[in-house]
Design brief:
By secondary structure, the chain is α/β, with parallel strands linked by helices. It is built from eleven helices and nine strands. Helix 3 runs parallel beside helix 4, helix 7 packs across helix 10 and helix 7 crosses helix 11.
């Protein structure tokens, strides 16, 4: 595979496009808002004004778009334009039901879609250190392997259907709960005048340690953390998980409420690890 179309130039899509270009792929990018494409040109990415122009002749097509309905509308244009041997890597987090619909749409068009949501943020994409959870037919996964290897340090093939999107939401629930626990712990330390480093020391070598949350907490304490888990995105993933579960466990709803409070105050792009928390309990 040598030519890749990246549809969606938000934080993650742009990072993926830059990474692939740096790895020697011919990359064409399209975005609904054309102004977001301009910075990619200096990274060697060719920008296109239409979905069809970006997709035509590409060996792989990556969609990194905000919702299932947006992906579906773009799919109506990309599927007829992509080659029969090309592979569609649907990396957007859209949940299971939308994934099933998109897979069926691709099947009717005679094209192959891999359900391939990613874990980690744009910085990991720039370094080629993403985790990609992928489901779909083995031959298509192998055809897409060069692209996946350029973007990810871990590629987990978890099934032949839409299993990857379900696992991604489950992992997102775990991550959001871990981040919420860490943020609450730091807030409690502030309010009670306790040293968060000492609280972390008690946890770090014990059975209740969560390395991810402890690492994030240390970065927050040191002022070295680059925001990477926006409140709005964490809330979106939890909404998808809660909707799909129906009778969702109370933990997911509780964490969603914790994220929703700052998000509802116009802070949806704030980092979930450092949401504005009141200094005094209500």
């Amino acid at each position: 595979m040598t030519t890749v179309a990246v549809l969606g130039a938000g934080t993650m899509g742009a990072a993926m496009a830059r990474r692939l270009a740096a790895e020697g792929f011919t990359v064409r990018a399209w975005n609904r808002t054309a102004a977001r494409l301009k910075p990619l040109e200096s990274a060697g990415v060719r920008t296109e004004g239409g979905v069809e122009d970006a997709v035509r002749g590409a060996d792989a097509v990556i969609t990194m778009l905000p919702t299932g309905s947006v992906v579906a509308s773009v799919a109506e244009r990309l599927l007829p334009a992509m080659g029969e041997d090309a592979v569609w890597l649907q990396t957007s987090t859209v949940g299971g039901p939308w994934t099933d619909r998109l897979r069926e749409t691709a099947r009717h068009a005679g094209r192959t879609m891999l359900d391939a949501p990613v874990s980690d943020g744009g910085g990991a994409a720039e370094r080629g250190a993403l985790t990609v959870i992928v489901s779909g037919p083995e031959p298509a996964v192998e055809r897409a392997r060069p692209v996946l290897a350029a973007l990810a340090s871990r590629v987990l093939h978890v099934g032949a259907g839409g299993e990857a999107s379900r696992i991604k939401l489950i992992v997102s629930g775990w991550t959001a709960a871990s981040v919420a626990a860490m943020a609450g712990t730091l807030a409690a330390c502030r309010r009670l005048g306790a040293d968060p480093a000492q609280a972390a020391k008690v946890l770090e070598d014990g059975p209740f340690a969560m390395p991810y949350a402890l690492d994030e907490a240390e970065e927050v304490r040191d002022g070295a953390r680059t925001p990477g888990f926006p409140v709005a995105l964490g809330g979106k993933d939890l909404d998808l998980l809660i909707d799909e579960l129906g009778d969702a466990p109370g933990l997911y709803r509780l964490v969603r409420d914790l994220l929703e409070r700052p998000g509802g105050e116009g802070l949806g792009r704030e980092d979930a690890a450092e949401p504005p928390l009141p200094e005094q309990a209500p």
